[in-house]
Write a structure and sequence with these properties.
Blueprint (H helix, E strand, L loop, with lengths): L2 H4 L6 E5 L4 H12 L3 E6 L2 H11 L5 E5 L5 H14 L5 E4 L14 H29 L6 E6 L13 H21 L3 E8 L8 H14 L8 H12 L10 E4 L8
Parallel strand pairs: 1-2, 1-4, 2-3, 4-5, 5-6, 6-7
Helix pairs in contact: 2-8, 4-5, 5-6
Length: 257
């Protein structure tokens, strides 16, 4: 098998949640450039439409409006994808939320908002898209689920983002649990990004981006091709023997301390 065949995802069908911005858009762009067809999903249609118009220059892309903080929103996404495709090769659970506040101000509402999207959203989205993943996957060529965790689910963050770090640690464990139960026809892995130029990280990077970069072994913030390349690897023949893994894509920040 040639190197080009090893990393080939041409013709694959992918859903990327939270695809209207940030890491979701980075991954969707990489998939399109590699020849996959992509559906992006998010809550806000104006942002989805704007991103889809831009991504359409790269390939076959469409969008679904869905609030993945609710079980019903996850169900509606599954139904919309099933109305378009009879199988799904790749699901990227990227939709996420964060919250930062002093410990005394971290109330149940803040916890619920983050957990509903970051943990329950991953679970229910996978559940409702499972029939399509099962239709596409085989033991020889599995369908892929890629959950977007975070290095903050591996290491202790400096910021008081208690619900966020707990939710991402939960995503990593959920990844391992799903991997065991969905094998062999579906692999489930997680990418744990460090700092990237995203809406979620914008304020932090504006305030301390240069200092953060200098604290990392590779001395820079993540680029779009860093996370897109990892997602393509996991989706290709090259990544077909991995399941239940959590891959830090963080310039070495979480693994060299």
């Amino acid at each position: 098998m040639s190197a080009s065949d090893l990393f080939d995802i041409k013709g694959k069908r992918a859903v990327v949640t939270g695809g209207a911005s940030g890491i979701g858009t980075m991954i969707a762009s990489g998939f399109l450039e590699a020849g996959a067809s992509v559906i992006i999903a998010s809550r806000k249609e104006p942002a989805l439409k704007e991103t889809t118009d831009e991504l359409s220059k790269l390939g076959d892309v469409s969008y679904v409006v869905a609030d993945l903080a609710t079980e019903e929103g996850c169900r509606s996404l599954g139904e919309a994808v099933a109305a378009t495709w009879d199988g799904l090769d790749i699901l990227v659970n990227n939709a996420g939320a964060t919250w930062g506040a002093p410990l005394a101000e971290h109330d149940s509402k803040a916890w619920a908002r983050v957990i509903d999207v970051n943990v329950e959203g991953v679970f229910h989205t996978t559940k409702f898209l499972l029939p399509l993943l099962q239709a596409a996957g085989t033991a020889e060529e599995p369908a892929r689920v890629i959950n977007i965790g975070s290095v903050d689910g591996i290491q202790v963050p400096m910021l008081e983002t208690f619900s966020y770090s707990a939710s991402k640690a939960a995503v990593h464990q959920l990844t391992r649990h799903l991997a065991k139960h969905l094998a062999p026809a579906i692999t489930v892995n997680a990418i744990a990004p460090g700092p990237f130029q995203s809406k979620m990280m914008r304020a932090t990077l504006e305030a301390a981006g240069d200092r953060m970069a200098q604290m990392m072994p590779l001395r820079r913030i993540g680029r779009p091709d860093d996370v897109a390349g990892t997602a393509i690897f996991l989706s290709s023949r090259a990544g077909s023997f991995l399941t239940g893994t959590v891959i830090p894509v963080d310039g070495g920040a979480a693994t060299t301390k």
